[in-house]
């Protein structure tokens, strides 16, 4: 389902607990993991160090080398005792599954009032046990440079994801939770938060074909797992059909020669330009030759037939999952507990947004079209802005406005990565009494030597979590 968070009991995460489960941050990777059991005492921190470990490479290298431990034994990824080697992922997942089985048994076997009153808390532990493994495995399989770790993380994720879908389609769990919620002797003792979580969980169960026959529930589990597999296959296979395109020196007029020299393969009459990555996008923004821009744009956006087939299979399988759960489409199923509620509402919002912005977009398109007509030399009436033109003429317009400005752009200096992280830490200190403190990374704890570790320090409780920043 191309989403990274756990489906089962995901409502419990709305509380933002002190010890948060991990989550991946896509474009720039950041991971949050629970703190160790013993909190680190609160200590004063010079937040200049927080800024400098991101903004100053010499400072970062000195900090990393100074704090590097040569005496501590290697630790597993994220200080997880199972993750000292790839095979540990499977053991990690199996241990979590065994713990979850015990928690399921507690819910299903709850008979006394006290046992039933504990059902929301037990389900919360069940959610945490699953998400601790699923989220970390999802992160590692997408980011770790070691193929062995990526493969093991994928295997662990697949195993536990299917197990999670089995729990989503277990009628006894839904029945026990529903009975407890409807029994005033039980639910009267729950907090408002526990009642809200119980209601949201029942909605989630309803989205998992819980009322269907055994055969359809089994199909739901299998198809849900297949959807996840296809989604991963599609994301991992995203690449242009051709890895590079040959362009002549004449076609490449306007491109910074340093970009071509450093990142392209030169041949007798020109260069071989990669169709993915910064060189391709730089060339698309700066090539003066429209036919060259068109050829590069088409190459950048052409996918192998197998990739297109994977996407089609993914969409069809996702639709079958929604149908089994009693919904007309996946969009309908996915929006039922969201703010928009229905696909009609989403389309209505998007159409309204389009109408409101159309005039602004048209003004910018008109400016780009004027520049293109100047390039053609005769203001031809048939000239229009093509998809491969937008980046080029947007860059031209930006240069035009920049040259008119009497003031240089000083703003970017205030928004370096380190400054932003420092500002976030100060903001969280004022709002919540927590701050980010740079900390040493033990051998084996991170997947790359340039990963920064930040301890999240609460002014009362000490260390409550750890941030890993791969930026």
Describe this structure in words.
This protein has helices spanning 47-55, 57-67, 88-108, 113-117, 119-143, 147-168, 171-182, 184-187, 192-206, 214-236, 257-263, 278-286, 290-300, 305-324, 330-335, 343-376, 390-404, 417-432; strands spanning 29-34, 244-248, 265-266, 270-274, 434-439, 452-458, 462-470. The chain has 471 residues and is an alpha+beta fold. The strands form 2 sheets. It has a 4-stranded antiparallel sheet. The relative contact order is 0.14. The model is unreliable at 1-5, 7-29 and 37-45 (pLDDT under 50).
- What is the C-alpha radius of gyration, as a whole number of Å? 27 Å
The share of residues in helices is 55-70%
Major sheet size, sense and barrel closure: 4 strands, antiparallel
What is the overall number of helices?
A: 18
List keywords for this structure.
four-stranded antiparallel β-sheet, 8% strand, disordered N terminus, three-stranded antiparallel β-sheet, alpha+beta, 56% helix
Summarize the model shown.
With 471 residues, the chain is α+β, with helices and mostly antiparallel strands.
SSE diagram, text form:
Blueprint lengths: L28 E6 L12 H9 L1 H11 L20 H21 L4 H5 L1 H25 L3 H22 L2 H12 L1 H4 L4 H15 L7 H23 L7 E5 L8 H7 L1 E2 L3 E5 L3 H9 L3 H11 L4 H20 L5 H6 L7 H34 L13 H15 L12 H16 L1 E6 L12 E7 L3 E9 L1
């Amino acid at each position: 389902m191309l989403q990274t968070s756990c489906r089962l009991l995901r409502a419990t995460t709305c509380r933002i607990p002190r010890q948060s489960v991990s989550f991946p941050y896509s474009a720039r990777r950041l991971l949050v993991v629970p703190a160790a059991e013993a909190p680190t005492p609160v200590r004063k921190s010079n937040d200049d160090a927080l800024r400098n470990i991101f903004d100053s490479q010499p400072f970062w290298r000195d900090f990393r080398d100074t704090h590097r431990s040569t005496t501590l034994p290697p630790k597993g990824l994220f200080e997880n005792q199972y993750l000292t080697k790839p095979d540990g992922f499977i053991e990690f997942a199996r241990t979590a599954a065994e713990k979850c089985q015990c928690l399921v048994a507690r819910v299903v076997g709850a008979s006394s009032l006290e046992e039933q009153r504990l059902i929301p808390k037990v389900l919360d532990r069940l959610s945490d046990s699953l998400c601790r493994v699923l989220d970390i495995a999802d992160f590692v399989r997408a980011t770790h440079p070691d193929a062995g770790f990526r493969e093991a993380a994928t295997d662990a994720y697949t195993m536990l994801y299917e197990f999670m879908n089995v729990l989503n389609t277990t009628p006894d769990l839904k029945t026990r939770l529903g009975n407890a919620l409807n029994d005033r002797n039980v639910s009267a003792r729950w907090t408002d938060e526990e009642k809200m979580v119980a209601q949201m969980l029942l909605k989630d169960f309803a989205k998992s074909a819980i009322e269907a026959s055994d055969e359809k529930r089994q199909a739901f589990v299998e198809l849900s797992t297949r959807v996840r597999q296809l989604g991963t296959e599609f994301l991992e296979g995203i690449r242009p059909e051709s890895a590079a395109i040959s362009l002549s020196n004449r076609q490449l007029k306007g491109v910074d020669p340093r970009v071509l020299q450093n990142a392209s393969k030169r041949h007798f009459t020109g260069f071989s330009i990669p169709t993915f990555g910064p060189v391709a996008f730089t060339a698309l923004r700066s090539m003066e030759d429209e036919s060259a821009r068109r050829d590069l744009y088409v190459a950048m956006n052409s996918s192998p037939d197998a990739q297109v087939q994977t996407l089609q299979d993914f969409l069809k399988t996702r639709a079958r999952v929604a149908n089994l759960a009693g919904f007309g489409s996946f969009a309908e199923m996915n929006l039922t507990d969201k703010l928009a509620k229905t696909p009609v509402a989403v389309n209505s919002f998007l159409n309204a947004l389009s109408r409101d912005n159309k005039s602004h977009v048209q003004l910018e398109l008109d400016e780009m079209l004027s520049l293109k007509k100047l390039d053609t030399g005769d203001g031809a009436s048939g000239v229009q802005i093509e998809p491969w033109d937008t980046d080029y003429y947007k860059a031209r317009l930006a240069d035009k406005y920049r040259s008119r400005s009497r003031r240089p752009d000083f703003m970017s200096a205030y928004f370096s990565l380190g400054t932003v992280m420092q500002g976030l830490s100060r903001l969280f200190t004022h709002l919540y009494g927590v701050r980010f403190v740079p900390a040493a990374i033990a051998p084996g704890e991170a997947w790359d030597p340039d990963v920064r570790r930040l301890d999240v320090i609460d002014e009362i409780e000490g260390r409550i979590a750890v941030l890993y920043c791969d930026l």
